[in-house]
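Hi support team,

I submitted a single chain yesterday and got back a structure, but I'm not sure I'm reading the token output correctly. Could someone confirm the output below corresponds to the sequence I sent? I've pasted both exactly as they appear in my results page.

Thanks,
R.
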Amino acid sequence: METVQRATITLMQNKTSSSLTTFEDLYPEEVSRPAEKRNYWVWIYLPLSIGILVIVGIGFLVVRAGFGSASAWADTSLIFMLIPAIILGLVLVVLLGSMVYGIVKLIAIIPVWFISIRRVFWQAENAVQRTGDIAVRPFTVMKSSWAALQESFSWLVSIVRIFKGETHD
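Hi R., thanks for writing in. Yes, this is the structure output for that exact sequence:
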């Protein structure tokens, strides 16, 4: 390791300003690690094992003292299992309540926005209806004129029949 450091330092010293940069030149001088390695046993495993021993010791003392019955311990464990479910349920109720509150506030705000949007749609609807009426008008005029003509001729025919003495039966 030490020889690599010396070689790196020598390369850095021999480098002139006009030399081309190589891939190895991109790395700075190697930073040496502390000589001592960290002792993970002291920092991780010792507190973990002490915590486990404390919990087992408390459990042993409780069982040896005969504190409580199996039913009491079952009720206690049931409470500890239900607490997270209750907290989750309360969070969901709060979320639902905030969504309802937000929707109520939006209902008060949205009609103001939609009035202008409704006006645009009403104008578009009226324009479409007027365009449709203009497109259909020649056909309706023709059909109504034909119906009026037929009705007037039927009226003349009925007058002629009356003069001939025919009845409508």
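A quick pointer for reading it: Residues 70-164 form the longest helix (95 residues). Let us know if anything else looks off.

Best,
Support desk
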